[in-house]
Amino acid sequence: MTLDTKTEYDYIIGGAGLAGLTLAWQMLENDLLDQKQLLIIDRDQKNTNDRTWCFWAEADEWLNNLPISKSWKNAIVIGNDFEIKQSLKPYQYFKIEGIDYYNFIFNKLKEHPQISVIQDVIVNEDSENHIINTQKTQYQFTEYFFKSYFIADELSQIKNPKKHFIWQHFLGWKIITKANFFESETITYMDMRVPEVKAGLSFGYILPEKQNEALVEYTLFSSELWKKEEYEQALKNYIENTLKIREYDIIEEEFNKIPMTNTIFEQRNKNIIPIGTLAGTVKPSTGYSFVRNYKHIQLIVNSLKNNTQSFESANSKRFRFYDEVLMNVLVTEKSSGHEVFGKLYKGNSLATLLKFLNEETSLWEDLKIMNTVPKWAFIKAVVGEFNKVLRINNNKVD
Ligand SMILES: Cc1cc2nc3c(=O)[nH]c(=O)nc-3n(C[C@H](O)[C@H](O)[C@H](O)COP(=O)(O)OP(=O)(O)OC[C@H]3O[C@@H](n4cnc5c(N)ncnc54)[C@H](O)[C@@H]3O)c2cc1C
Predict the structure, then answer these.
(1) Å from CA of 230 to ligand 1 middle
(2) 125/150 Cα distance (integer angstroms)
(3) Alpha carbons within 13 A on the beta-carbon side of 136
(4) Rounded CA gap, 95 and 19, in Å?
(5) Does residue 41 line the site of ligand 1, with CB under 6 A?
């Protein structure tokens, strides 16, 4: 990895976050950079722990390479009238600290002089002339520019009016409690003993590190963002009144938002290829993207290896439609978030739901899951989504 003054590269990656760094790492692992020059540009140094990634997966080889800091085998979901604790088998829930992932990949890249990393702000790109303009200078790419940089606040402005868009917004505190409180092998995946939110979902989420230490989050899926004090008050209420933890110290904070939408923000523009959030790797109905991003990067790497030039995420149309229907139910308030998710958890095992959210279930398994949701709400949402498709097709014919 070098810090040089060259301005022409075979590939440029804009944004050294999850998608950008995973791509650089996988290009390297797959010998795609042996004869090529790669430049990575990010406005940040990526030297802080700006997020924690969690995801569920079956034990597999690709996980062995990752800097996983903890994994859990069990999960609890809680509603006002139920509490379910189950094994996640065949899955485990894994956690990677953002800073560990950044360091893990930067350490691999630094051995290779054909990879340069610079800190600069990208201003725009010119697909015609293969030029990337930054605040400091201008770069040229001969093959591809992989674009993952975005400003979260601007994403809701580029939403497609025919699609749904809500935020997953959350405040989390890593706390140390005076007395032992948590089961360190069990996450609380969703605790719905919190006030309902209009046209969305609200829940508590707990990732225990030890019996007296956990990340406790208050999470909302909704279009309206709150003031910081409102999240603080809601989280405090959840910790002190719902969990009944009175004595605790806050040692870290996670406060952020993730776009949940079936809008694909950016399409390929000649040799500018969107990756990560811009390419739709964040699953609209959950906000998770770690595994989907990895799969998308594998597709890109295979495409580069075989020179097929096809880089689009291969998300299944069937599951995209389910995401649209679920979002329709929530945002148009056909049913409350707590009712929908309460019925899903009561009617299905957690492992089955995780398989469904991983888009790995068969149509038969999907039908069984659908049989457990509030039927009328979902039928009306299906009709609404079909009507939208028909209107779009009619407009195209006109
Ligand atoms: C706090 C938080 C927690 C999350 N937790 C999970 C989780 O547990 N599990 C999960 O699956 N998903 C999670 N996500 C969702 C998703 O996995 C992450 O948002 C992920 O980082 C998205 O990857 P990305 O590459 O698209 O964007 P990012 O990782 O955000 O990378 C974009 C990069 O672009 C850079 N950039 C922005 N503007 C410019 C510019 N003008 N010029 C140059 N560089 C620029 C940024 O500095 C950043 O490094 C979480 C998201 C957040 C925000």
Answers:
(1) 24
(2) 13
(3) 9
(4) 17
(5) yes
Is it the case that residue 49 has pLDDT exceeding 60? yes
Neighbour tally for 230: CB within 10 Å: 13
Ligand 1 atom with the smallest distance to the CA of 291 is: 11
d(CA 377, CA 336): 10
**Residues constituting the chain:** 398
Distance CA 190, CA 199 (A): 18
| Band of pLDDT at residue 142, cut at 50, 70 and 90 | very high
Residue with structure tokens 């990010």? 42
Mean pLDDT of 59-77: 95
pLDDT band, residue 398 (cuts 50/70/90): very low
Three-state DSSP class for 301?
helix
pLDDT at 30: 97
- How many whole angstroms from its chain centre is CA 146? 18
β-partners of residue 202 are 220
pLDDT at 69 over 90: yes
Residue 173 three-state SS: strand
CB of 289 shorter than 6 A to ligand 1: yes
How far, CA to CA in Å, does 90 sit from each of 193, 288, 355, 358? 28, 19, 9, 13
Contact in structure between 137 and 188 (CB atoms under 8 Å): no
Task: Tell me yes or no: is domain 165-259 CATH 3.30.70.
Answer: yes
Closest ligand 1 atom to residue 170 Cα is 1
Is 277 a pocket residue for ligand 1 (Cβ < 6 Å)? yes
Position 118 pLDDT exceeds 60: yes
Q: Choose among 37, 17, 14, 42: nearest CA to 27.
A: 37
How many whole angstroms separate alpha carbon 156 and alpha carbon 165?
A: 7
pTM over 0.90, yes/no: yes
Point out the ligand 1 atom lying closest to the alpha carbon of residue 289. 11
Give the domain ranges of the chain: 8-51+97-158+262-306, 165-259, 317-397
Which pair of tokens denotes residue 218?
A: 């208050």
The answer to whether the beta carbons of residues 167 and 153 sit under 8 Å apart is: no
* 322 φ, ψ (degrees, to nearest 5): -60, -45
Task: Indicate the SS3 state at residue 80.
Answer: coil
Residue found under tokens 């092998």: 185
Q: What is the spatial distance between Cα 86 and Cα 73, in angstroms, rounded to a whole number?
A: 9
Topology of domain 8-51+97-158+262-306 in CATH is FAD/NAD(P)-binding domain (3.50.50)
